[in-house]
Structure to design on (307 residues):
């Protein structure tokens, strides 16, 4: 069936359907001659399920795991119920604090000293509740990572950090990341790379990283068809890189960055804990290592740094 019929059956917009396709939740057949999409009843059922789960405020990444068989629907619903319950508890505490302030001073407005008395406990409650929301870690990285290079790193790793912080192991991993970044100085980068980055505006960096994120998502839980496409892309990249005149310089820059990151225990502390916090990041790393194994080559020898 054509997309207009699918829109009618699912009550989703064309843009929403295309978005779910882009995110890898749907794979309709496409005619090679005119690129028209053809949808099946199974596609419609998937979209109806996606629509329901999104209405329950379940993140797209979690829905993708359900569709790919990496998580049980029951587990995802239970985790969402836990997050909703935590939010309701926080709202109840807010209600009680407001009532306490109003009832304690029925004839006047509370003064700043009285408000300050509630400030710390309220801030702690808010931070605790925010940790249980999707996207908390990605947003927080922007505050924690120092310097321009740090901002690019935060944008890179942020795509993998949409999961809420749930459980002692994730709490510990996040605490170690915060402590590590709090003591991290600006990483000393090769002069050539700094000059290249300084030429880019904030908007240009964000646009480049958004395109980069689209590429990164391809490495998360690819099926065999998608993995074969990644192999073709990798083969083309390595062939093209060998022909460029600045290949040796790029390899040198990449290896210099790797040395500086190792000196700052970046992989030992930061990347290790990112792996604990994100199933998507673990899948991404597995795909990268599988490609290197299948081609018997190293990313760094092709001017590419694994992060």
């Amino acid at each position: 069936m054509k997309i207009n019929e699918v829109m009618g059956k699912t009550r989703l917009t064309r843009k929403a359907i295309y978005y779910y396709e882009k995110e890898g939740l749907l794979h309709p057949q496409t005619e090679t001659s005119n690129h028209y999409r053809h949808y099946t009843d199974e596609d419609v059922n998937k979209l109806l399920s996606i629509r329901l789960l999104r209405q329950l405020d379940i993140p797209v990444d979690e829905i993708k795991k359900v569709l790919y068989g990496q998580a049980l629907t029951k587990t995802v619903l239970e985790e969402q119920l836990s997050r909703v319950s935590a939010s309701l508890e926080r709202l109840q505490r807010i209600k009680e604090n407001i009532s306490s302030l109003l009832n304690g001073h029925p004839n006047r407005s509370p003064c700043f000293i009285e408000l300050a008395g509630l400030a710390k406990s309220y801030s702690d409650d808010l931070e605790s509740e925010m940790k249980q929301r999707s996207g908390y870690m990605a947003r927080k990285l922007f505050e924690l990572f120092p310097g321009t290079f740090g901002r690019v790193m935060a944008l890179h790793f942020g795509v993998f950090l949409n999961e809420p912080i749930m459980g002692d192991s994730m709490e510990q991993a996040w605490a170690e990341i915060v402590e590590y970044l709090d003591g991290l100085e600006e990483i000393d980068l090769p002069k050539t790379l700094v000059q290249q980055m300084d030429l880019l505006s904030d908007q240009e960096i964000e646009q480049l990283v958004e395109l980069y994120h689209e590429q990164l998502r391809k490495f998360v839980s690819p099926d065999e068809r998608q993995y074969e496409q990644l192999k073709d892309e990798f083969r083309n990249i390595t062939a093209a890189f060998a022909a460029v005149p600045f290949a040796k310089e790029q390899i040198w820059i990449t290896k210099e960055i790797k040395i500086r990151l190792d000196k700052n225990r970046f992989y030992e502390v930061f990347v290790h804990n990112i792996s604990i916090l994100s199933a998507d990041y673990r899948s991404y790393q597995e795909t990268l290592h599988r490609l290197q194994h299948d081609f018997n080559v190293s990313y760094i020898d092709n001017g590419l740094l694994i992060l």
Observations:
- The chain has 15 helices and two strands.
- The longest helix spans residues 73-104.
